[in-house]
Amino acid sequence: MGKWRYGVILDAGSSGTRVHVYRWLNHARAVKAADAVEMHSLPKLETKKKWTKKIKPGVSTFGDHPGDVGRDHLQRLLDHALTVVPEDQVEDTPIFLMATAGVRLLEPIQQKALLSEICSYARKHTKFSLPECNLHIQVIPGETEGLYGWIAANYLLGGFDSPEQHDHGKGHHTYGFLDMGGASAQIAFAPNATEAVKHANDLKLLRMRTLDGKQSEYKVFTTTWLGFGVNQARQRYVKALMDATFAPDTKELLDPCLPVGLKTTIEGEPIKSGKSTGSDPVLMGTGLFEECLAQTYPLLDKDAPCADQPCLLHGQHVPAIDFSVNHFVGVSEYWHTTHEMFELLPNDRAYDFTKYQKLVKDFCGHDWSQIESGLSEGTWGNKATARTAQDVCFKASWLINVLHNGIGIPRVGIEKSANGSGFNVTKEHTAHVNDKGFLDPFQAVDKIGDTEVSWTLGKMVLYAAGQVPPATSDALAVGFGSNVAGHALPPDFQEAGSNSNPVSIDEDDSFAEAAEELAETAQEHSRSTGFLLFVIVMLILGYLFRKRERRLKLVRVYNAVLRRNRRPGSPRKGRGLFRPGKIFGRGSGHYERVLEDGESAREFELGEADLDDNDHSDGSESSSRTAQTSGLATPKVNVSGFEGGPYFTDSPVHGPGVAMGQTSLPNAMDRSGLVVRTESRERLAPNLLGAGRRSRTGSPTRLKSPVMGPLDEM
């Protein structure tokens, strides 16, 4: 295992699929580098913008022909992930595909066929860890999506790791989470102590684990409103508009939620002047934002019967929200609708109800021709497009209604707070944004620091926490489930995964990690002279650290850099002057060719002898396999079911290394437990007959391997 652990997750949404790659330090390295504060924190995940890739359309479009989803959709995303995850880490890297609103709308039989095909394809065409289809490839309910988002927001804001710095009063230190997409909306928050006791059965029990192996538990309420996303809400609005005003001879429906003078079809497509629309009526924008607010309010369905008080929207139960301690962050449409159209200045990023409503009202009152001119001149910001300009009046009215009339977020602007203290909430946010804390009742966010607030991050944080070894033998599993009294592991508890046995870090590992960091730096600047500088550094390191195992690790790093810098299917680079054989050691063309491939470099490990010594080697099957088996043992990953056990458990490495001069060797299969390649015997020594071949039993490298020993049968 290397310095890093990796995780791959695919967010299969309604409009497209996005692959995210995350990484975190393996536990042994993280503990070694952690200070006292970090030991009480969750694992630190990181990602980069270029590690994410989105393609369209969504996987739900393959519902009628699932057999095409792999070739026509998944393969591009898998290829992208493989350019990020090091080749020798792929088998130890879990992959997840979580489908949301789009796939939820498919028939159950279509869902099952589609998910089955996705799992089969990923297993066949990659070596990513995918032991259990039902847990790794699934349609997640909106409540789970909201919970993952809640984890991500609090993880990035610091609510988990430094509760004393995020004390909101009454012992509360976490933030609420709001998400709105095209089809649905979610809310997740931890109620105050009183509400948590009163509505205990409505909460989710979430358990995580910090680096010191100690568990932390949270009780979170989460729910979803299907049909309350902006696109579905717009469809319901247009239907209500038609039902209220449509008559057989109606040619135009006046729409206060469109800018003045804009004409669209019922489906929302703009109509050019003079273009025939047939018999269907058209929508004519009037830009009356106050009227738009009034007409979108009934869509909240606040009058629906509430079987379990209290309720917010659509008769759906939600515990009372104490806004003195519950401060919310909103992502997705909450961010896009408040920022993409009007692109507020960096020092004015906090949501201000008064200012925002005035901006939208003024904008919607403009004539559409003026708005189009402003778009070309950049008046409305660099991110504004004709489509966002067309939709913003409705989206803004819907967002304002959901926030303030639905959920009940206080309408706080720059006026004094309700307690009359003169506290300026907007300025307070600006002052606290750098230390990951704010006191606003609501704040729209896209990123916190340099990391996007995405529910996929929450899923991977939970998984990484599950990789931490527990501090005690009776520790409970990491994951989430229903908050059932008296049940530490309720029947519906989903385990996040548990740790492989941690790998110790020695001097050679530290050396390889330093080289890997150099490789990553070179990769980021490979189009400049930086890559040449990296090669020079590697030459120096190869001279200073001439022990064979260290040079082989440099070879692997070198090959990994070459692999990451070429596109899938492109010719290999690095042959010629900078071939590994010329940089890292001598040998014939056969030896250089073997080392060019990272996989071969791991499988073959020769002594210092020249190849001529092997010309008369014994050609028997047993001796050839003994000579070809790698001298470095790798812990094997055993896979167990998720229902009653962890995701992964490593079998221990048994026994000491083979000593020089040992006269009897175990069978190759008993010693390594792996099926080895035999193709390179001819490459390494074309003439294998006769005696005199040097046995790898006596190879100096075998004596220096700290983990040498037989492995269990796979």
From TrEMBL:
One of its GO terms (biological process) is CTP metabolic process. Residues 609-714 are annotated as: Disordered. PROSITE patterns: GDA1_CD39_NTPASE. The active site is at residue 145. GO terms for molecular function: ATP binding; GDP phosphatase activity; ribonucleoside triphosphate phosphatase activity; UDP phosphatase activity. GO terms for cellular component: Golgi apparatus; membrane. Gene3D superfamilies: 3.30.420.40, Exopolyphosphatase. Domain 2. Residues 620-632 have a biased composition (Polar residues). The chain crosses the membrane at residues 528-545. It comes from the Eukaryota. ATP binds at residues 182-186. Keywords: ATP-binding, Hydrolase, Membrane, Nucleotide-binding, Transmembrane, Transmembrane helix. Belongs to the GDA1/CD39 NTPase family. This is Golgi apyrase.
